[in-house]
């Protein structure tokens, strides 16, 4: 059995402000395996950056344990706190954080010199790392002379050069244009398959998370709401919060009528059959039903599909797809299609969706 | 159980860096020493002089001082109010022109707030005195000759600098930079969308300024007024040079004369000092209330780009005002000083054949008093600037910006700025001219006073130098396996260097041109430039005064030039 590279156990971090205390991390546990790309995803203020900085040693948690490569680097109980420079990891920052007074080469050489490598060895390794990120010819330049994308590549070279195999990313692509961002995303993945580092990657961009991650940890104010592969998170969210945060979702309120192979739920648009639900739901329980716009359709209504009617209010053309807003008895609903539909605005439509595409989550009343 | 709790608190402090390392212990001890230097002299002076203080209440209310003190207070009020009003008018017009109009002042706009550094106020006021002395004024003389063409003859005037008006205007000149800086900063932070919304709502530029811009920066005006009051109340050099001839005493000079009298009237001196201190503290309190962040919600982030208001022909008027101000603070007084310093003796009818460099030669090499004053002032400036920048630089770079340690250190280093120099002078004299610490008349007492008086400038310069780096660069170094101290040495220090050097120069220039504490604490055994300038002025050695004032002006101007060069280059690397 291989042990995880990073093991976070029951981590709690509380910020004390003038207005009282704010729980940034609430008993969070997470393992990151060797070579694994884990994305921490969540809205701002959910604690994802705090968790990353705690792993880096830039913040000190209030309780819990962090183990990196089998070495205890933080434990509130044992009174252990290993400062960042003695943890075997590197980090890439949103602002690139290149040192403007050092040349590109010196920026990359710096971590090696700090671990006692000779100047000649360090220089060779740094040049190799720069070549890997496609900046072999830029070593004599200064950070101020590079574009944002190039600067972040230098930061990446600085992160891989020490060969620790654990890199922390703090929203590294947020400051870049869409095009550069997409290209760097690809380069990051090919770099990872080349040198097989473990990554903990913080972002609030769900597309980025889905594209990069082996596993996504969706965070909600200080706790991890769900951990799983991108497919699991997208297709089988375990809570209304996760369903809502990843992708877009239609929601309507209902009440469970009966529980069987499928759930039958009474709603304002009639009885719906629901395929995704937790087994502890009981008849009579209020629930939220969640279904994604692209899982609803107007024409492809198959055997056993739920059907309900509404009025088309408006269609937005988005290039690759079309977004249709439909007024129903349960409120406004969004349906996404790849192809145009034959229905005009203000005309009645019938919507269909498969039971296994609908999720039910308990609703508090 | 309690052991675990103890361990966890010890850990937390390691990150917030309250835990004492040898390095931070030294910093805390130095900070403590500075606080002691502020609190001890004042406290001990009050203890020593307690009886005299009590007695002086009687003297001031219905004793021998009951007639002079109200006049002094009244004079001070006129000077401070007048100067502040003048500065507010000129300073905010210049700030608005520079920030909002198409008559952007460019390089002059950068120089404006530095005027009081480029030409030390003591040199500036002496310069104006030689220009507008009623009899021998270098400007008055040609004016009289011009008026004679129209049959108007007079042996004095037409202008007399030794009047309340002179005092107010010259004090005002040196208050303008404060207003300019505060108002400029506020204007930079007003979201231009607010003004653009007003323009698209059919208000013209003037109406927009009156109804939107000015109300938005109201708190800045209040802050500028209070800053003007505080600096006016404590200003010493202007009334010390002009007040004598005008027979107008203001509080700072009056306190000085109480101590110079024989026997020294220590009781009233310290009582009035405490009064001055209390007044300044009240004003600072008011300023803090006004400047509370929640109160000016209209002002948001900074670094907006404004569409300039087109001034048309008025642009030339705006340029003229700016150039006039530069002339008034720098060019004219320097020319006046130059003419007097080159003459064998001060006469308004300049005979170019007799001009000589003898005064410079005398001041620089022959006169033992001026030579040792120069050596002392420059040495003290060097030590004070280096010490203060080292301490405050280390604090700013080492202590985490939002940490508790940094906040405590900030309070300590900001404390001395709230104490008028006159009060520091009085407290140091009374505390350090007797056992157990008898250092009055030594250069040590000046060194300590200068350190206290300039530590706040140094701290501010260090803080902004450190803030310009940003925390992520240091954090990137930590995760790149550099220790705390290595990060400080390899990353933070080199990056903060331009800002620290600029701060060093500022402290040096302030120290060399300092007059207030120098007047109180320096004498024949420990002469410094500020004191010697006043003495030479009072003894009537005008050409030597002018030469000495020019020499320190030259030093200041050169250093400020270097400072501008460094900070501009720093900006270039930061923005690229």
UniProtKB/TrEMBL annotation, chain A:
<keyword id="KW-0067">ATP-binding</keyword>
<protein>
    <submittedName>
        <fullName>Fe3+/spermidine/putrescine ABC transporter ATP-binding protein</fullName>
    </submittedName>
</protein>
<dbReference type="InterPro" id="IPR008995">
    <property type="entry name" value="Mo/tungstate-bd_C_term_dom"/>
</dbReference>
<dbReference type="GO" id="GO:0043190">
    <property type="term" value="C:ATP-binding cassette (ABC) transporter complex"/>
</dbReference>
<dbReference type="InterPro" id="IPR027417">
    <property type="entry name" value="P-loop_NTPase"/>
</dbReference>
<dbReference type="InterPro" id="IPR003593">
    <property type="entry name" value="AAA+_ATPase"/>
</dbReference>
<dbReference type="Pfam" id="PF00005">
    <property type="entry name" value="ABC_tran"/>
</dbReference>
<comment type="similarity">
    <text>Belongs to the ABC transporter superfamily.</text>
</comment>
<dbReference type="GO" id="GO:0005524">
    <property type="term" value="F:ATP binding"/>
</dbReference>
<keyword id="KW-0813">Transport</keyword>
<dbReference type="InterPro" id="IPR013611">
    <property type="entry name" value="Transp-assoc_OB_typ2"/>
</dbReference>
<keyword id="KW-1278">Translocase</keyword>
<keyword id="KW-1003">Cell membrane</keyword>
<keyword id="KW-0472">Membrane</keyword>
<keyword id="KW-0997">Cell inner membrane</keyword>
<feature type="domain" description="ABC transporter">
    <location>
        <begin position="6"/>
        <end position="246"/>
    </location>
</feature>
<dbReference type="InterPro" id="IPR012340">
    <property type="entry name" value="NA-bd_OB-fold"/>
</dbReference>
<dbReference type="InterPro" id="IPR003439">
    <property type="entry name" value="ABC_transporter-like_ATP-bd"/>
</dbReference>
<dbReference type="GO" id="GO:0016887">
    <property type="term" value="F:ATP hydrolysis activity"/>
</dbReference>
<dbReference type="InterPro" id="IPR017871">
    <property type="entry name" value="ABC_transporter-like_CS"/>
</dbReference>
<dbReference type="InterPro" id="IPR050093">
    <property type="entry name" value="ABC_SmlMolc_Importer"/>
</dbReference>
<dbReference type="GO" id="GO:0140359">
    <property type="term" value="F:ABC-type transporter activity"/>
</dbReference>
Automatic annotation (TrEMBL), chain B:
<feature type="transmembrane region" description="Helical">
    <location>
        <begin position="72"/>
        <end position="97"/>
    </location>
</feature>
<feature type="transmembrane region" description="Helical">
    <location>
        <begin position="491"/>
        <end position="512"/>
    </location>
</feature>
<keyword id="KW-1133">Transmembrane helix</keyword>
<protein>
    <submittedName>
        <fullName>Iron ABC transporter permease</fullName>
    </submittedName>
</protein>
<dbReference type="Pfam" id="PF00528">
    <property type="entry name" value="BPD_transp_1"/>
</dbReference>
<feature type="transmembrane region" description="Helical">
    <location>
        <begin position="316"/>
        <end position="338"/>
    </location>
</feature>
<dbReference type="GO" id="GO:0005886">
    <property type="term" value="C:plasma membrane"/>
</dbReference>
<keyword id="KW-0813">Transport</keyword>
<dbReference type="GO" id="GO:0055085">
    <property type="term" value="P:transmembrane transport"/>
</dbReference>
<feature type="transmembrane region" description="Helical">
    <location>
        <begin position="268"/>
        <end position="286"/>
    </location>
</feature>
<feature type="transmembrane region" description="Helical">
    <location>
        <begin position="26"/>
        <end position="48"/>
    </location>
</feature>
<feature type="transmembrane region" description="Helical">
    <location>
        <begin position="377"/>
        <end position="399"/>
    </location>
</feature>
<keyword id="KW-0812">Transmembrane</keyword>
<keyword id="KW-1003">Cell membrane</keyword>
<feature type="domain" description="ABC transmembrane type-1">
    <location>
        <begin position="73"/>
        <end position="287"/>
    </location>
</feature>
<feature type="transmembrane region" description="Helical">
    <location>
        <begin position="411"/>
        <end position="433"/>
    </location>
</feature>
<dbReference type="InterPro" id="IPR000515">
    <property type="entry name" value="MetI-like"/>
</dbReference>
<feature type="transmembrane region" description="Helical">
    <location>
        <begin position="161"/>
        <end position="187"/>
    </location>
</feature>
<keyword id="KW-0472">Membrane</keyword>
<dbReference type="InterPro" id="IPR035906">
    <property type="entry name" value="MetI-like_sf"/>
</dbReference>
<feature type="transmembrane region" description="Helical">
    <location>
        <begin position="545"/>
        <end position="566"/>
    </location>
</feature>
<comment type="similarity">
    <text>Belongs to the binding-protein-dependent transport system permease family.</text>
</comment>
């Amino acid at each position: 059995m291989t042990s995880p590279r990073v093991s976070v156990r029951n981590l709690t971090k509380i910020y004390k402000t003038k207005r009282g205390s704010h729980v940034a991390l609430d008993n969070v546990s997470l393992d990151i395996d060797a070579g694994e790309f884990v994305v921490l995803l969540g809205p701002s203020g959910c604690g994802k950056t705090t968790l990353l900085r705690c792993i880096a040693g830039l913040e000190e948690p209030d309780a819990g344990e962090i183990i990196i490569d089998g070495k205890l680097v933080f434990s509130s109980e044992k009174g252990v706190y290993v400062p960042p420079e003695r943890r075997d990891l590197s980090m890439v920052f949103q602002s690139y954080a290149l040192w403007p007074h050092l040349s590109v080469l010196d920026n990359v050489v710096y971590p090696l010199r700090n671990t006692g490598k000779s100047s000649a060895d360090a220089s060779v390794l740094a040049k190799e790392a720069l070549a890997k990120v496609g900046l072999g010819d830029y070593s004599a330049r200064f950070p101020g002379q590079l574009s944002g994308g190039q600067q972040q590549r230098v930061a990446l070279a600085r992160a891989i050069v020490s060969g620790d195999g654990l890199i922390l990313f703090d929203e590294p692509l947020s400051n870049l244009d869409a095009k550069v961002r997409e290209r760097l995303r690809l380069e990051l993945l090919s770099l990872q398959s080349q040198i097989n580092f473990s990554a903990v990657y913080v972002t609030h961009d769900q597309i980025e998370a889905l594209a990069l991650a082996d596993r996504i940890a969706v965070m909600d104010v200080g706790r991890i709401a769900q951990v799983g592969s991108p497919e699991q998170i997208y297709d089988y969210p375990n809570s209304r919060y996760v369903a809502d945060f990843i992708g877009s979702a239609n929601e309507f309120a209902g009440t469970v009528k009966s529980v069987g192979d499928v759930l039958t739920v009474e709603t304002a648009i009639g009885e719906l059959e629901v395929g995704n639900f937790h087994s502890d739901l009981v008849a009579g329980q209020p629930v939220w039903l969640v279904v994604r716009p692209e899982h609803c359709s107007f024409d492809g209504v198959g055997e056993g599909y739920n059907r309900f009617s509404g009025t088309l209010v408006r269609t937005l053309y988005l290039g690759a797809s079309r977004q249709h807003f439909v007024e129903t008895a349960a409120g406004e609903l969004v349906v996404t299609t790849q192809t145009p539909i034959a229905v005009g605005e203000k005309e009645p439509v019938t919507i269909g969706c498969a039971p296994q595409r609908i999720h039910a989550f308990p609703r508090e009343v | 159980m309690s052991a675990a709790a103890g361990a966890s608190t010890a850990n937390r402090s390691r990150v917030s860096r309250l835990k004492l390392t040898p390095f931070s212990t030294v910093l805390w001890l130095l900070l403590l020493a500075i606080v002691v230097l502020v609190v001890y002299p004042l406290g001990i002076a009050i203890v020593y002089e307690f009886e005299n203080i009590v007695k002086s209440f009687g003297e001031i209310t219905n004793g021998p001082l009951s007639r002079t003190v109200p006049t002094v207070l009244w004079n001070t009020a006129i000077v401070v109010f007048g100067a502040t009003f003048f500065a507010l008018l000129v300073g905010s017009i210049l700030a608005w022109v520079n920030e909002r109009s198409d008559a952007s002042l460019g390089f002059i706009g950068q120089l404006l707030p530095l005027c009081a550094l480029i030409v030390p106020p003591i040199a500036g006021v002496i310069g104006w005195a030689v220009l507008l002395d009623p009899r021998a004024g270098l400007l008055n003389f040609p004016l009289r000759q011009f008026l004679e063409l129209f049959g108007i003859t007079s042996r004095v005037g037409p202008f007399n600098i030794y009047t309340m008006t002179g005092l107010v205007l010259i004090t005002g000149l040196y208050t303008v930079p404060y207003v300019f800086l505060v108002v400029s900063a506020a204007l930079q932070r007003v979201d231009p969308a607010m003004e653009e919304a007003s323009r698209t709502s059919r208000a013209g530029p003037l109406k927009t300024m009156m109804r939107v811009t000015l109300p938005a920066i109201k708190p800045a005006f209040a802050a500028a007024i209070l800053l003007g009051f505080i600096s006016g109340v404590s200003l010493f050099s202007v009334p010390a040079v002009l007040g004598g001839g005008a027979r107008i005493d203001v509080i700072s000079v009056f306190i000085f004369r109480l101590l110079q009298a024989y026997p020294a009237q220590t009781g009233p001196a310290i009582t009035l000092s405490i009064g001055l201190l209390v007044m300044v503290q009240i004003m600072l309190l008011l300023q803090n209330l006004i400047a509370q962040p929640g109160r000016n919600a209209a002002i948001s982030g900074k670094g907006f780009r404004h569409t300039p208001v087109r001034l048309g022909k008025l642009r030339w008027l705006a340029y003229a005002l700016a150039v006039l101000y530069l002339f008034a603070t720098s060019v004219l007084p320097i020319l006046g000083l130059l003419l007097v310093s080159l003459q064998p003796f001060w006469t308004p009818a300049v005979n170019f054949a007799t001009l000589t460099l003898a005064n410079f030669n005398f001041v620089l090499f022959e006169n033992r008093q001026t030579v040792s004053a120069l050596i002392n002032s420059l040495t003290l400036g060097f030590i004070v600037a280096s010490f203060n920048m080292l301490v405050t630089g280390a604090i700013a770079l080492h202590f985490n910006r939002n940490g508790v340690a940094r906040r405590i250190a900030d309070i300590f280093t900001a404390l001395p700025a709230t104490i008028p120099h006159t009060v520091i002078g009085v407290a140091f004299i009374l505390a350090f001219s007797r056992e157990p610490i008898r250092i009055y008349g030594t250069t040590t007492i000046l060194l300590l006073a200068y350190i206290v008086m300039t530590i706040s400038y140094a701290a501010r310069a260090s803080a902004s130098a450190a803030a310009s780096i940003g925390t992520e660069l240091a954090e990137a170094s930590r995760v790149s396996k550099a220790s705390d101290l290595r990060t400080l040495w390899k990353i933070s220090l080199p990056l903060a260097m331009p800002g620290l050097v600029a701060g060093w120069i500022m402290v040096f220039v302030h120290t060399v041109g300092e007059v207030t504490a120098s007047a109180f604490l320096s004498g024949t055994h420990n002469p410094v430039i500020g004191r010697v300038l006043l003495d030479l002025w009072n003894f009537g050695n005008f050409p030597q005064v002018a030469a000495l004032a020019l020499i320190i002006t030259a030093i200041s101007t050169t250093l400020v030039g270097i400072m501008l060069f460094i900070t501009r280059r720093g900006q270039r690397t930061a923005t690229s």
